[in-house]
Amino acid sequence: MKVNLETMKTILLNQRKERDELMSRPYLKRSIGQDVDLLLGSRLIKLITGPRRVGKSTQALLMLRDKNFAYLNFDNLALLDVWDADLVMRMLDDVYPGYEYILLDEVQNLAAWDLWVSELYRMGKNLVITGSNAKMLSSEMATVLTGKYLQVEMLPFSLEEFFDWNGLDLRHLKEEQADASVLMDDYLRNGGYPEVVASRLLTRSYLDTLFDSIVWKDVAKRYNVRHTTSLNDLAMYLVSNICSPVSANELAGELGFSSVNTVKKFMDYLHEPYLFYYLSRYDNKLRLMKKSPRKVYIVDNGFVAAKAFVLSDNLGHLLENQVFVELLRRGYDTDKTLFYYRSRNNKEVDFVLRKGVRIERLVQVCYDMGNLKTEKREVDSLIECAGELKCRDLVIVTHGEERVVEKEGYRIQIVPFSGF
What we know:
Low-confidence stretches: none
Strand content: 15-25%
Distance between the termini: 56 Å
Number of strands: 14
Shape: globular
Structural class: alpha/beta
Strand order of the largest sheet: 9-10-11-12-14-13
Helix content: 40-55%
């Protein structure tokens, strides 16, 4: 389709208005763990990844707020329908005279985006990119753009950011214990999606719609899934069974799939938009690790309240899921540094943290350690796994307790999630 200059210029001018309106809003400054000036000063591509609606675009706009930058939003059918790379680059000079940076928002929606981005990089353009697909860092980004980008991964609000939004300092809670307890419970049940932390009455309907949008738009449509009902059934099963071990064979039987390979493919699809994560069981033998069931987690607890087919809250699973997401936020990943473990006697520890070839810490999660029988079960499991893995840094994360347990020569820190 032939696109004239005026049509393209109108689209880009409309996007500039969108950019300026977005920048005029008040935002909570997010912690990204990196120096923004150093990032922007680098000629490498700045890639901001994470799930939809967690604030990637906002973060990019805040980084560039005082700079002269061009803006292209690829979550926009008008632009995608008339895409012409050469024409766009000519028009950018008219719409954003003298721009220093280009912000490419949700660039994964553009066909062959990586080749075009690589061309811009070779031209010396200083690029900030956002994307909502984990595959950008594996097959796509890793081939064409290897060594050319710096990554900033964003997730929903952390507990500290959620408290900041509500005017409380997570590190100084003694004077506001009652308010802090209410906020902790709210965060545990409803999660930290930026759009709804200020309007909790909308949380469930918003996240219900967002979940469906991710499944149907980012997965079914992107991958031309024909059996969309089966895909949705799998997504609903996973969100209703967070923190549980699952295997493709069992899921195929449970949900009536004709092919185990289809289950595996659909599980991968549901991870790519950063919706679900799968945690492998730690084993020195890679072959055995790959054969073991994986535990399933979701990027935000609010999805559980919005979508899970459960009759009552499982606070233990909600806390465990929150600890998992916090570990992701700290840079652990499910391929190399984060696992679960089951001992020879079938005792389990929730999280094994690895650094290089060394196990650096074991983390158990227990919502309430007040019952002596519960404490014995959790402590004994942790100690048995610690013996097999030869690790002495042991932590049990609870909802609100803080103390030390010493047993069999091990010293176990019991900490509240707010202090983890």
